[in-house]
Amino acid sequence: MEFELWWLLALPLFFGLGWLAARVDIRQVMTESRAVPASYFRGLNYLLNEQPDRAIEAFIEVVKVDSDTVDLHFALGGLFRKRGEVERAIRMHQNLVDREDLSVEQQVKARFELGQDYLKAGLLDRAEAIFTHLNMGEMAEQARNFLLEIYVQEKDWSKAISAAQELSRGSNQALHVEIGHYYCELANQAWLGDQIEVARAYLSDALTANRDCVRANMLLGDIAIGRDEVNAAITAWRRVESQNEPYLTLVAERIMAAYRRAGREAEGLAFLRHALNRQASHELFDVEFSAVLRLEGAQAAWVVANEQLRRSTNLRSLDRMLEAEIMIAPSERQAEVQLVKQAVHAHVHSLLVYQCQDCGFKARSFFWRCPACGQWDSFPPQRKED
Question: N or C: which end of the chain has fewer CB within 10 A?
Fold first, then answer.
């Protein structure tokens, strides 16, 4: 009974101590909240409501009141950079870098933010210097990613290869596709400089880095045909089919031209038809139609186009059928068919575009790297109707 009575007496005491502690905590919270300027909360509210311009104005008021708010300086600098006011972001982060009272972690973060400011401003040499300095610390992987971006912008493909290889070793990023393209860029430069063997060596490195590098075999074929090595060119271009079959559309016309140059156009047409049986492609059909027109005449070409139109009802097939129709139509109808053909052809070619699968950028020409978002291999090899 004494033990139970003791606990009954202790319960009010514990309750009172808990109530007192809660009151102390509440007073501390209230004191701290009063110390924070109202502009800070207004700024947060503007951010939540996606009003960055008004948020910046509110945060500037806070910084004027208390210049020691380091985290707020970081947030404000990031907002400046996001809004495109890069000079203000640079000044904000440079002031932080120059301060001696920051911790090591804060100094590293300030340099990292300043490097991003320089990169956004196009001051690549300054950005490179900062990210190179940060390449060995806690932010090494992020710094290497930015260094890789800088080297690609500068078209310094040798440094880009080294940076990508280092990133691949130090992280889970698979950059073999990008490395293959960097080697292809070097090969293209060497080829334009008439360094044929150097170019071929780079293309061999590209295929070692990425065995499915379609671009490497396309360039090998281009180099071979330029040196009148027709069979070697055909072999290189035909390897594209086993690497990535849809990309055969990019080399189909070159393959047929090489077969024609070698006096083996019928063999090339057979190859093309075999490819068409495996994948439906308007681009492959266009090449087939031209070959049939040369080898077998307008009537055979009209039949091929008519069959294609029945399989896939679209203006592209109709355009080809009308092209053959002009040749086989009676003379009194040719002018009429020609008029329709011109209208259809102009409309079709005004609609056909390549489109980036990452950002949706549209272009009349094929790109290995999207000019808008910078992604490699984001353009499918087939054009689509816009």
Answer: N
Give SS3 for 356: coil
Question: DSSP letter string over 245-264?
Answer: GGGGGGTHHHHHHHHHHTT-
SS3 category, 384: strand
Compute the chain's Rg from CA coordinates.
Answer: 33
The tokens 């804060």 sit on which residue? 106
CB 320 within 8 A of CB 289: yes
Token pair of 185 as six digits: 């860029």
Confidence of residue 28 (pLDDT cuts 50, 70, 90): very low
Q: Tokens standing for 336? A: 């009429």
Cα separation of the two ends of the chain: 89
Instruction: Pull the structure tokens for residue 251.
Output: 């080399």
170-179, pLDDT tens digit by residue? 777 789 999 9
Q: Output the DSSP codes for 39-66.
A: HHHHHHHHHHTT-HHHHHHHHHHHHHH-
Q: Could you give the CA distance from residue 8 to residue 1 in angstroms, rounded to a whole number?
A: 11
CA distance 363 to 36: 52
Check if the beta carbon of residue 176 is closer than 8 Å to that of residue 187: no
- Tell me if 375 sits within 8 A of 358, measured CB to CB: yes
Q: Are 328 and 304 in contact (CB under 8 A)?
A: no
Q: What single letter denotes the amino acid at residue 235?
A: T
Q: Which residues pair with 376 in a beta bridge?
A: 369
Q: Give the three-class secondary structure for 366.
A: coil
Length of the chain equals 386
Q: What CA–CA distances, in Å, run from 160 to 275, 289, 385?
A: 36, 42, 35
Beta bridge partners of 188: none
Let me know: does 320 contact 305? Beta carbons within 8 Å.
Answer: yes
Helix (H) or strand (E) holding 355: strand 352-355
